[in-house]
């Protein structure tokens, strides 16, 4: 069991407070690259599985009438904090003070997300449109209440008055065939990755593994895969998927850190242009 330990100082007295997870998120998204900027921009489904033997069945009574819930959780992939952070919606490229952002790099790794509640099945909550990763420890659940949680006319500080528009994503037939093949052979879901990474600020080299080709095209790296794309008007076009391995990397005697070189060898042996 994972415990989150936090220390608070008050009037010279140190108080140790321990939080114990009440459950865990189950989702397809496992890596930071797959995490949506906010749940509002996600198009996913998953679940929160509460622990048995804690009397949580009774605690869930009456929650099924709410369409949305707050999840309070632990950022289990982060072990450091940053006083200034890069943000995806800053028009001037400035770093912002952490407490004016929703960045996960916090002194105490506590997160708060509003998610859509679809159904409750025993100790399992079926959720949609969330920005949490698989295995995220849940610390608490609260209902989203429109009367109290939505404040008309609230100021938004340094944020733009209107959220930035997202770019549409379109695929060349070659790239679409390649991505479907990779997914069908137990590779990563590159459709989901591309939507999360490239629908907003696709050329941001500070926040993404982007290699610029020219003013309108670039390559997005995800683990051992490379995604070539370009921006035309308001649309990001995905042109081709390539292996991130060199020919030498794919020799049989080479180290296979990600246990996927067999998949890349097979990928390289196929002429996907014949399937277009």
What does this 3D model show about the protein?
This protein has five helices and 15 strands. With 276 residues, it is of the alpha+beta class. The protein has two domains: 4-149, Elongation Factor Tu (Ef-tu), domain 3; 168-275, RelE-like (YaeB-like fold, 2-Layer Sandwich). The chain has a six-stranded antiparallel barrel. Strands 11-15-14-13-12 form a five-stranded mixed beta sheet. 20% of the residues are buried.
Largest sheet: 6 strands, antiparallel, barrel
Side by side, the strands of the main sheet go 3-4-9-8-5-10
Looking at the overall shape, the CATH architecture of the largest domain is Beta Barrel
Task: Provide the gyration radius in Å.
Answer: 22 Å
Q: Which ranges are low-confidence, i.e. pLDDT below 50, for 5 or more consecutive residues?
A: none
Summarize the structure.
This protein has 276 residues and is of the alpha+beta class.
Pick out its properties.
about 280 residues; YaeB-like fold; 2 domains; five-stranded mixed sheet
């Amino acid at each position: 069991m994972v415990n989150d330990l936090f220390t608070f100082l008050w009037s010279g007295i140190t108080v140790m407070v321990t939080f114990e997870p009440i459950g865990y998120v189950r989702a397809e998204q496992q890596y930071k690259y797959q995490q949506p900027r906010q749940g509002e921009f996600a198009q996913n489904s998953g679940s929160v599985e509460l622990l048995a033997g804690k009397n949580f069945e009774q605690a869930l009574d009456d929650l099924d009438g709410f369409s949305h819930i707050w999840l309070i959780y632990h950022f289990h992939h982060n072990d450091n904090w940053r006083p200034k952070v890069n943000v995806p919606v800053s028009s001037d490229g400035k770093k912002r003070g952490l407490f004016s952002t929703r960045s996960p790099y916090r002194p105490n790794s506590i997160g708060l997300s509003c998610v859509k509640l679809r159904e409750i099945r025993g100790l399992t909550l079926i959720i949609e449109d969330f920005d949490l990763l698989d295995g995220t420890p849940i610390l608490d659940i609260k209902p989203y209440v429109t009367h109290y949680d939505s404040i008309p006319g609230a100021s938004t500080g340094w944020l733009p008055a209107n959220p930035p528009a997202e770019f549409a994503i379109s695929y060349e037939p070659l790239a679409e065939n390649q991505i479907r093949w990779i997914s069908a052979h137990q590779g990563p879901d590159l459709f989901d990755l591309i939507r999360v990474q490239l629908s907003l600020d696709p050329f941001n080299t500070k926040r993404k593994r982007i290699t610029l080709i020219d003013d309108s095209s670039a390559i997005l790296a995800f683990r051992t895969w490379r995604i070539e794309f370009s921006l035309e008007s308001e649309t990001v076009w995905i042109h081709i998927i390539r292996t991130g391995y060199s020919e030498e990397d794919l020799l049989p005697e080479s180290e296979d850190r990600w246990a996927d070189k067999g998949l890349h060898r097979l990928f390289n042996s196929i002429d996907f242009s014949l399937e277009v």
